[in-house]
């Protein structure tokens, strides 16, 4: 007879099996699937999602969990069994608190919202999107009320993406970051020094970009025996089993950065997935911790490693050999400055390492105001423009390049945006600790050695899975709570020398 805990784990592993099949179908849909196959593919995925949802809300889970709540297996919340019971209880409570009618209304509004958003963006017509967005805001408030929250309704929404994190704490950290980042970005914008960006827009043959990107991803630790790199329109990383992680990119023959840094970013996500414990696959100890922690791994490899001078000290000769016509006559310092260009811009996904967080802070402030009812949807475009003027010193000429640029709100993803900046903040704080403990990462990168950092991340960040909350993990690994200091110090150091700030 299997024990209750074994039954619970077996059930979760079987759900993960179904989920991983759905992931493979979704990956195929976004990379290789012939266009006419879309309708039947949607049926396949919907069928599997229904099975998965039914399994998640199986009343037996509630019975097993209440039986296990007082057992020895649950006594240490950070042990594998303790974390499994704690996190499955959390998920089960959340899923069973939201009435089925609200789940369906949200799923319908999100489909309609994405369609309305896409049409409104094309037509530059916010008014045509405002109705469905108002409905989404109402439904998200109802969801928060159903799930419950400690302080403000936004807490409940944030918790879906960053479990255990609070609005008050994120507000505190991002506000401190904003206060120092706004003047830093303004000083950079005023600097007379400018990189030559033309060198990144020369001809970079796609086959060579693919070979070079693959080599770099492999060098930093993405395991191609347990993963692949393919082409797509909107790059993503997906795992579909403990030994199968797919990363994707898109190539621009006349712009070096899109594919190269995109590959490093997705490889960073993939390295995290590959670093999770395979024997815990489908269970909380073998599952990624939060969206913010996931993003910290992609940002760390993309920015803190991939945009560092030491990284290019090692890789630049190879880049020049791979792209002799584009880079043969370009000194390393010119290339390094070009890939670290900072300037206030309108579009988040095209923004640089420094201004990116201001784009996020604007969205975080606005979506909180919507949920807390201090801003109406009709006043949103004006509030958006005002914040861009205030934080970035620029203003979008129209809503298509302003409030309508991201799909998130139309897809009912409210509470998601701050996880991007949390990722940058976690990454910076982890990196500073790793640099101290491993004794000078720059020298290692310059020598092409990335294994020590990879191993450090696997031991401290990937291995524990969900055994600690993100804030507990940050304290355990870095010895202090999450703050803005490491990120700001790294940005200041890099840009002070590049832009000749005082
Ligand atoms: Zn990412």
How would you portray this structure in words?
With 502 residues, this protein is mainly alpha-helical. The chain folds into two domains: 4-96, no CATH class; 167-499, Neurolysin, domain 3, CATH 1.10.1370. Helices cover 64% and strands 3% of the residues. It contains 21 helices and three strands. The protein has helices spanning 4-31, 38-56, 59-68, 80-97, 100-123, 127-147, 153-161, 167-190, 206-220, 256-275, 291-305, 309-322, 324-327, 332-338, 356-371, 380-392, 418-438, 441-446, 451-462, 470-478, 485-499; strands spanning 227-231, 237-239, 245-249. The protein has a three-stranded mixed β-sheet, with helices on both faces. The termini are far apart. The model has no long low-confidence stretch (mean pLDDT 96). Zinc ion (ZN) binds at residues 265, 269, 295, 298.
């Amino acid at each position: 007879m299997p024990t209750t805990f074994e039954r619970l784990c077996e059930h979760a592993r079987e759900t993960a099996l179904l989920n991983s099949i759905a992931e493979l179908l979704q990956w195929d849909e976004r990379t290789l699937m012939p266009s006419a196959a879309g309708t039947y593919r949607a049926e396949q995925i919907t069928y599997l999602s229904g099975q998965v949802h039914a399994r998640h809300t199986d009343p037996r889970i509630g019975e097993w969990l209440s039986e296990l709540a007082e057992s020895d297996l649950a006594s240490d919340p950070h042990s594998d069994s303790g974390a499994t019971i704690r996190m499955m209880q959390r998920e089960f409570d959340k899923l069973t608190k939201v009435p089925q009618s609200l789940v369906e209304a949200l799923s319908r509004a999100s489909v309609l919202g994405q369609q309305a958003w896409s049409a409104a963006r094309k037509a530059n017509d916010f008014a045509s999107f405002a109705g469905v967005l108002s409905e989404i805001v109402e439904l998200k408030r109802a969801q928060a009320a159903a799930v419950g929250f400690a302080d403000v309704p936004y807490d409940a929404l944030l918790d879906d993406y960053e479990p255990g994190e609070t609005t008050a704490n994120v507000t505190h950290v991002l506000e401190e970051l904003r206060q120092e980042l706004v003047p830093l970005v303004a000083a950079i914008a005023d600097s007379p020094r400018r990189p030559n960006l033309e060198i990144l827009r020369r001809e970079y043959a796609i086959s060579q970009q693919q070979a070079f990107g693959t080599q770099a991803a492999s060098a930093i630790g993405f395991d191609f025996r347990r993963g692949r790199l393919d082409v797509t329109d909107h790059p993503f990383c997906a795992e579909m089993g403990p030994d199968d992680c797919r990363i994707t990119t898109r190539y621009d023959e006349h712009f070096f950065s899109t594919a190269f840094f995109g590959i490093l970013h997705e490889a960073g996500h993939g390295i995290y997935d590959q670093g999770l414990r395979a024997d815990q696959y489908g269970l909380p100890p073998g599952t990624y911790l939060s969206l913010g922690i996931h993003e910290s791994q992609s940002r760390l490899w993309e920015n803190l490693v991939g945009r560092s001078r030491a990284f290019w000290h090692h890789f630049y000769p190879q880049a020049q050999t791979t792209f002799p016509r584009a880079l043969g006559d370009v000194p390393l310092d010119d290339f390094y400055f070009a890939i670290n260009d900072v300037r206030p811009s309108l579009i988040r996904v095209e923004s640089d390492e420094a201004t990116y967080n201001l784009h996020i802070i604007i969205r975080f402030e606005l979506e909180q105001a919507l949920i807390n009812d201090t801003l109406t949807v009709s006043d949103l475009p004006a509030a958006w423009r005002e914040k861009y003027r205030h934080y970035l010193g620029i203003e979008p000429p129209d809503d298509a390049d302003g409030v309508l640029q991201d799909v998130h709100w139309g897809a009912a993803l409210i509470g998601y945006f701050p996880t991007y900046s949390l990722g940058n903040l976690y990454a910076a704080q982890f990196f500073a600790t790793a640099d101290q403990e491993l004794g000078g990462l720059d020298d290692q990168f310059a020598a092409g050695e990335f294994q020590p950092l990879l191993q450090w991340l696997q031991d401290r960040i990937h291995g524990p899975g969900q055994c600690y909350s993100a804030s507990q993990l940050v304290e355990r690994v870095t010895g202090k709570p999450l703050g803005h200091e490491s990120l700001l110090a790294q940005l200041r150091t890099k840009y002070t020398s590049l832009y000749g700030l005082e």
